[in-house]
Fold each of these.
Amino acid sequence: MEGTTTAIVVVLSLAASYLAVSAYIASAAARVRRVPLVFNAELPHEEVSFPSRTDNLLLRGWYFAAGPDCAIIVNGGEQNRVDPVTGTLDLTADLVAAGYSVLLFDLRGRGESAGQGSILPHNDRDVGGAVDLVRLRGHRRVFIVAFSSGAAVTLALASVENVTAVVSDSCFASAREAFVRELARRGCPRALAYLLSPGVLLMARTVHSLDRIDPEIVVTRVTCPVFFIHGQSDSGVPVDDAYRLFKAARNPGNLLWIVPGAEHTQSYRTCRGDYLSRVTGFFAEVSRTSGRRVT
C-alpha cells in the first residue's frame, strides 16, 4: 500500500512539473520583444490612436485617407507597422495609389502601442479595435491584408466579425504545429518540442483561449471571402498549410495563390505588380458581387 501511495505521489509530482514547465513555455513562446518604430511614412497621413476591444489597450498607427473603401494592414511575428521584410510601407503606398484608404497600425506591445507583445493571444482584439476605428471614419467596406500570425488572428476576428474580405498571407494552419516550430526556432530540440507540445497547447488553450485563434478551426466559421496567399518556397510555414486552410474554408468566393519562389511573407516583394493587381482585383470583385469566385 505504501509503495502504491509513493508511486501515485511521484506520478502526480511529475504531472504537476510537466504542466508547470508547459505553462512557462506557453507564455515564453507567445511573448515577443518590442521592436521600436524607426521609420516614418512619407505619404501624407494622420497619426491615430484607438483602444483595442475588451481590454482597451491604447494602440497607435497611421491613417491614409484616399477613398471610400479602407484596407487595414496587420503585421506578423515581432514586427511593428513598418515591416521592411514584408514591405508594408510600399504596400500601403500602392494601395493608396489604387484608391484605397489604409490603416497601418502597431499590434499591442509593438512599435508605439501599449501592452505586452504576443504572437497570438489577444491580438484579435487589436484587429477588432482597428475595424472599429475605420468604421467610425465612415468606411462601409473594410478589407484586411494580414501576414503570418497576423493573418491567424485576423481570421479569428473574421470568424465573429462581419468584415468585407480578408487577404491571408503566409498563415499557418495549426497552432500546435506553429508552437512546435517556434520552440524549435528558439533552440528547443524538435523531439522535446513534440513531447512538450500537448502540455504547452493545453496551457495555451487554458490561459490564452488558443482555440479561439487556431486558424484551421476558426476558418470554418469565416463567412466573408478570403484570398489565401502563400510562398511556394516558404521555409517558416509549410506551403501545405495554405492548401489545408483553403480546403477547410467554406466560402465559394475564396481564392488561393501559391507564389513561385516566394519565401515567408515575401510574395509581395517577390512579384509586387502581380500581387497588387490580384489583391485589388479581389477587392473589386468582392465589392461588386458576393459568393462568386474570382477568375
Amino acid sequence: MSTRGWYEYHVLNPRTHQRTLAMQFYKWGDATAENALQEWRLLQTKIEANDGLLPIVWLDDLLREQLGELYPRLPEQFSVAAFLFLIQRAQEERSPFKGRDYRELLKEQRPDYRLGFATGKAMVKNGFLPLEHSDLLLNDVLWFIGVGHFVRPWREYGLTWSVLEWLQYLTQVTMTKEMGSIAGYLSAPRDTSMRYRYFIWIDPVEPFRITRLAVELGERGGGNPLAVEEIFGPDETPDAYYARENAAKLQRLVEELGVDLCTLEKIAGDYSEAPDLFWGPRCHDRPALTDAMVKTLRVGTSYL
C-alpha cells in the first residue's frame, strides 16, 4: 500500500517555553507508521553520534547568505528542523532505485555526474570548507549545501519558488520529484492518510544542540495507530482485527527501536505556541513558471 503522510517538526525552546512549527513536508508513498518510527531512529542515531550538535550551522549560513533580509521571516529555529529534513532526503536519495534512468548514459551525460562535478569544482575553487564529512549522510547534506551556495543559488529561483521549494530542489538531481519527502506544501494534501509530529528539544544556551527527539504517530482523522481497543470474538470486524494486529506490531517496533513517544497534548501544557508568521495564508501570489523559464531551468546553468 502506497501511504501518503504529513510530517510536522516542532522545535521546543526550554528558555522561552515556546514551541515553534519549524518545518512541514509531505511524503508521497511509503509513509507508513513503521517507516516513521525507522526515520525517528535514523535521526536519533545521528543526534547521538554527534552529542546533539549536528553541523546545522552549514544550513544556517547558507540561508543567511542567500535570503539576506528575508532570513528573520523564517520560523524560529527553522535551520534545526530543516537540517533534519535534509538528512531524511539524503537517506532517500541513497535508494538503490535512484539513477536507474541514467545507467545507459555516458558519464558526462548523466545529470547526477554533472551536478556532482559542478558542485565539487565550485567548492574547491571558492575555498569552501569542509569539503567532505566522514558520515555518508552528513556528507550528502554537505553537498546539498554546496549546491545551494554555488550551483543553484536562491537568487535564480526566488521570484518563482518558495524557500521550501528551493530547499527541496537542492536535494534532487533534476527538477523531477519522485517518491519520498517533498517540501513546499503549506498544508497536508487531501490524499494524506497519516500524520506524524516530531518534537525537537533544543539546548537553552546552544540553540543548535538537540537534547531530545520524540515522535507522535497519528491518523488524519485523529486516530492513534498505537492505541486500538482490543475486540475479540465473533463481533470483531476484519478492519478491527487488522487495526489491533497492526497496533501490536507497532508497539513491538517502538520497544525494539527504543522510540521516544510524546504527544502535542502533553507538550501544550509546558510550551505555548509561537506566533505563526510563515505557514499561514500569503498576502501575495508568486508568478507561475512560464515555458521559457522552465526551458532555462532545464538547459541553462540551473539545469545542474
Amino acid sequence: MHAIRVHRVGEPEVMRYEDLALPTPGAEDALIQVKAAGVNFIDTYIRSGSYSRPLPLTLGFEGAGIVTAVGAKVTHTKPGDRVAWTDVLGSYASHVLAPANRLVPLPESLSFEQGAAAMLQGITAQYLTHGAYWLKTGDTCLVHAAAGGVGLLLCQIGKIKGARVIGTVSSAEKARIAQAAGADETIIYTEQDFSKEISKLTQGAGVNVVYDSVGKDTFEKSLASLGVRGFLVSFGQSSGPVPLFDLQKLAANALFLTRPSIFKYTVTHEELLSRAHQVFEWISAGKLNLRIDHIYPLRQAAEAHRALEGRKTTGKILLIPE
C-alpha cells in the first residue's frame, strides 16, 4: 500500500510518499481501499506540530472507499460495502485500517468524492448547528471563513434552519461564493472591521452566535460581535491558538464560550450514524451542496497543504490514491 507519512513535524516538505505492508484487520477492524481522502486543517496542525501526536504516523482523518476485509467480530459491514469515515487517523493512503464502528454506509446516490468531502466538514457543520449551539429560525449568526469548506456548509445549513447568516471573507470573489451558498450579508475582513460592521448590520444588538474557525486573529472581535447571552463557538485556529483569556470578559453580556470537537459529538456509533445520515440526506435532497475545490493525486499531498494553509481554496480539497 501507499501512504503519506510524517517522521518529523514541520512544513509540508516533511510529508513522504512511502510504501508500507498491507495491514491485517483485528477482530473489530475493517480494511478499506481508499477511493478519496479529505484534507483538513487538523492535518496541517498535526504535520506542523501544533497538535502533538506520536511519530512517525500516516496523516489524514477522513475518506471514503470499499471494504476489502473485516475482522472476526465485525457484523455490520462486509467486504464490498461502500463506506465513509472520519476520526480514523491514517486516511492519506491507498488502504486504511479502521475500527468498524467508525464506518458509515455510503449511499449509492453519493460518489466516493462526495462521501470523503462530507464527513469531517459536513458532520462538523451539523453538530455546530445541532449541538454546540442549536441554531433556530430568527437567529443571526456570524460565520468566519464563510467561503471555506465548513463555512460554506454553515451558510447553507443556516438557511435550512431559517437563520440570518452573515459571513466574513477575504475577497470580493469569496463574498460572491458565500452569498451563493446562502449568506445574507458578507464582510470583507481585509477591508473592513468586522465587529463594527456587525454592529451596523444588527443595529447594535449583536449576533446570537459566532462560528469561529480562525482563532487568534478573530477571537476578541468575535466576542465583541455577540449580543446579550450570545454564544462564541470556537472550533478552529487557522490563524493560531487563542491567547490566555480572562473569563470575566464574558460577564458584561452574560456570554457563552465553547471549544467543541467533532470527536466529542460523535462519541457513540449511533450518534455518528445519526449526524452523518442527516448530512447525506441533505446532500441527496439537493439542500446541501458540496463544493469540491480541488482534487490532487495522493503523492501531491504537500501541494494540497500549501493551498489550504495559504487560504487559496474555497470548499473542499481531496486526495485520490493512484
